[in-house]
Amino acid sequence: MRSRRTIAVYIDGFALYKALLQHTYPQYKWLDLEAFSRRLFPHRDATQVKYFSAQLKPRTNDPGVGQRQQIFWRALRTTNVEIIEGKFSFVKQRLPIHPEQLDAKGKVITTLIKRPEEKGTDVALASHLILDALDGLADPYAVLTNDSDLAPPVEMLTQRGHDVALVSVAGASYNKAFDVAGIRTVRQIRRGTLHASQFPATLVDGEGRTIRKPPSWP
């Protein structure tokens, strides 16, 4: 019997959250990424699933965000998903207040905000993707992102004969830089796939400790 082809999956965690899980499908945050990857590519054996993200710090308007993330990471570690950590930094930026207001001189009034920005995730993902391809880890490779910064390393691999698929977090409106990069397969994320790939509300880790879905997650 012929064995199925393998696939390695590389997940941009920030892109997945911002594009789908934060507002569009918040009820599916408790996502088993290994099961999710297998459902995205049912005719492949997912030999490696790598999840790239960064630790969140408590915020004034959401002091529990870091704790919820750690619970989710504990759940991921009960699977074969490898978590690769980057860092968050805060960038100061002036933005117009909402609703828009003008000062006495007719200029738009702005306010200073601190915007979280993930650092190192795209570099780490590109590095792991290229090194794994050089080692012949799998065939093909799949990248979940909409970050055009990842198009050049993808193009490097496709030009050398590697098959790289894009998992689009933006549906059909994915970044067309990936077409130029030689992507031949674009897999869109369906709601049913997210729904079917949820962890159970309670699970147990390898040390016998109980992990429960954060109560505030629907």
Overview of this structure, please?
The protein is of the alpha/beta class and 218 residues long. 28% of the residues lie in helices and 29% in strands. The chain is built from seven helices and nine strands; from the N terminus they run E-H-H-E-H-E-E-H-E-H-E-H-E-H-E-E. Strand 5, helix 5 and strand 6 form a beta-alpha-beta unit. It is globular.
Secondary structure elements and pairings:
Blueprint: E1 6-12, H1 13-21, H2 33-40, E2 45-54, H3 65-76, E3 81-96, E4 110-119, H4 121-134, E5 141-145, H5 151-159, E6 164-168, H6 177-180, E7 185-188, H7 191-196, E8 202-204, E9 210-212
Parallel strand pairs: 1-2, 1-5, 2-3, 5-6, 6-7
Antiparallel strand pairs: 3-4, 8-9
Helix pairs in contact: 4-5
**What's the average pLDDT?**
91
Largest sheet: 7 strands, mixed
Whole-number tally of structural domains? 1
- Structural class, by secondary structure, is alpha/beta
Instruction: Please write the string of helix (H) and strand (E) elements.
Output: EHHEHEEHEHEHEHEE
Reading off the top of the CATH hierarchy, the class is best stated as Alpha Beta
Number of strands: 9
Superfamily at the CATH H level? Answer: 5'-nuclease
Strand order of the largest sheet: 4-3-2-1-5-6-7
What ranges have pLDDT less than 50 throughout 5 or more consecutive residues? none
Number of helices: 7
**Alpha-carbon distance between the termini?**
43 Å
